[in-house]
Specification:
The complex is a heterodimer.
Chain A (H helix, E strand, L loop, with lengths): L2 E3 L4 E5 L4 E3 L2 E3 L5 E8 L6 E7 L7 E2 L2 E6 L4 E6 L8 E9 L3 E6 L3 E6 L1
Parallel strand pairs in A: 2-12
Antiparallel strand pairs in A: 1-4, 3-9, 5-6, 5-10, 7-8, 8-9, 10-11, 10-12
Chain B lengths: L4 E3 L2 E4 L5 E6 L6 E7 L6 E7 L2 E5 L7 E4 L6 E5 L8 E8 L11 E2 L3 E5 L1
Parallel strand pairs in B: 2-11
Antiparallel strand pairs in B: 1-3, 3-8, 4-5, 4-9, 5-6, 7-8, 9-10, 9-11
The chains are: A mainly beta, B mainly beta.
């Protein structure tokens, strides 16, 4: 199984600054996927970015990038140029690439962006 | 809007009652997942379907829980004899493995918040 650890319960960042949200994972699988989701106070989980274990380059999607360090088993989310609307809960999740299917989630990091 | 939809959005019930939730996935997605999320936690997997086949169930899915996807489209999650510990957000997600290079990106609905009194 995948074990996902997010050690930052809360993070604060000033508008327009960059912020890094930490995620480490523990799996014995060779093939797996790592995901980041955003959950605003409304409750819906919004997919942000995906990184496959065999992808050689770090994934990027607009202001989001994933700093993937396979040897350290980390998949940190970097948000550049933070906006007030980025304030939300952020979850790191992983699956087992050999079977795809269920996601294993971390406990999340509450990000607050201040003006 | 062609995203995942869930109904109802909120449900308040008394302990011992049965409740049923519905999830309509993105139309071309063949996989459908149910998760439960309690306050301060990440979502926990309950079960998933590929088309109408239920492929995996978590041990969290006790005998009081049952999920169906009879025609491979929408799904229902029923909880019988609800308990206060069932109070949570129930999230549904859908995916189509292979659409984006072998990934299985799951897209979530808005959730159903259950409160058991």
């Amino acid at each position: 199984a995948q074990k996902i650890t997010q050690t930052q319960p809360g993070m604060f960042v000033q508008e327009k600054e960059a912020v890094t949200l930490d995620c480490t994972y523990d799996t014995s699988d060779q093939s797996y996927g790592l995901f980041w989701y955003k959950q605003p106070s409304s409750g819906e989980m919004i997919f942000l970015i995906y990184q496959g274990s065999y992808d050689e380059q770090n994934a990027t999607e607009g202001r989001y990038s994933l700093n993937f360090q396979k040897a350290r088993k980390s998949a940190n989310l970097v948000i550049s140029a933070s906006q007030l609307g980025d304030s939300a809960m952020y979850f790191c999740a992983g699956n087992r690439g050999s079977t795809l299917g269920r996601l294993y989630f971390g406990r999340g990091t509450q990000l607050t962006v201040w003006p | 809007d062609t995203g995942v939809s869930q109904n109802p959005r909120h449900k308040i019930t008394k302990r011992g009652q049965n409740v049923t939730f519905r999830c309509d996935p993105i139309s071309e997605h063949n996989r459908l997942y149910w998760y439960r999320q309690t306050l301060g936690q990440g979502p926990e997997f309950l079960t998933y379907f590929q088309n109408e086949a239920q492929l995996e169930k978590s041990r969290l899915l006790s005998d009081r829980f049952s999920a169906e996807r009879p025609k491979g489209s929408f799904s229902t999650l029923e909880i019988q004899r609800t308990e206060q510990g069932d109070s949570a957000m129930y999230l549904c997600a859908s995916s189509m493995p292979g659409l984006a290079g072998g990934t299985d990106t799951q897209y979530f609905g808005p959730g159903t918040r259950l409160t058991v009194l």
